[in-house]
């Protein structure tokens, strides 16, 4: 496939891991570049690919989106995601081939809508990546089976007014009941954002579970 525009943050030395970063709706790759830089600093052997969403944002100002929110009801969200999910999965696999890094050493890093895409991609194809770091997101629809080859880390601000932290608790509980390997970390007083503490917690979680 023709990849979306991206910012590549190269590994320091030989690349052993691939981190693929997906931004929120109305944002762009530049918004998540600082997160990519921080992850690259924490994991120097990781190449970080910070991706632009597939479409221009249709909400009235600049930025990109993975799927449109225009006139979307809650019931329509799964169908909107399902429509673009094959392209998202193909994007991940194309990047894996480009860098010669297998799925076990791939980490999907999402924020908000990017987290929705990352979680749904793993639900559709278990083992597409070895890890998911999902900030401030949710499932389009809750899973009915546990991923066997993917570890999921959820991180969420408890004061998030865009995507309620309740969705993170619901997702974690569902995954735990299904037997998945999942963690959930929240922070009081934090809204729809990646705080320094949540970033540090994400790095700690990854350090504990990345496959050597």
TrEMBL record:
Keywords: Hydrolase. Residues 13-202 form the Phospholipase/carboxylesterase/thioesterase domain. The keyword Secreted does not apply. One of its GO terms (molecular function) is hydrolase activity. InterPro entries: AB_hydrolase_fold (IPR029058), LYPA1-2/EST-like (IPR050565), PLipase/COase/thioEstase (IPR003140). Transmembrane segments: none annotated. It comes from the Bacteria. Belongs to the AB hydrolase superfamily. AB hydrolase 2 family. This is Phospholipase/carboxylesterase. It comes from Marinobacterium lutimaris.
């Amino acid at each position: 496939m023709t990849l979306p525009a991206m910012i590549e943050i190269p590994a320091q030395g030989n690349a052993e891991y691939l981190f693929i970063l997906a931004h929120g709706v109305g944002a762009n790759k530049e918004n998540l570049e600082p997160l990519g830089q921080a992850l690259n600093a924490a994991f120097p052997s990781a190449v970080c690919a910070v991706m632009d969403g597939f479409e221009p944002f249709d909400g009235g100002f600049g930025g990109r989106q993975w799927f449109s929110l225009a006139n979307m009801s809650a019931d329509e969200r799964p169908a909107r995601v399902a429509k673009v999910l094959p392209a998202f999965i193909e994007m991940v696999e194309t990047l894996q081939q480009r860098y010669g890094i297998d799925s076990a050493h791939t980490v999907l890093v999402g924020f908000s809508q990017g987290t929705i895409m990352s979680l749904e991609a793993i639900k559709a194809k278990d083992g597409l990546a070895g890890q998911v770091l999902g900030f401030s997101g949710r499932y389009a629809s809750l899973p009915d089976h546990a991923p066997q080859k993917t570890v999921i880390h959820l991180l969420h601000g408890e004061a998030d007014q865009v995507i309620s932290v309740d969705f993170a608790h619901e997702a974690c509980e569902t995954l735990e009941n299904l037997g998945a390997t999942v963690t959930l970390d929240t922070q009081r007083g934090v809204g729809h954002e990646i705080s320094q503490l949540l970033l540090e917690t994400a790095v700690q979680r990854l350090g504990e579970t990345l496959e050597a």
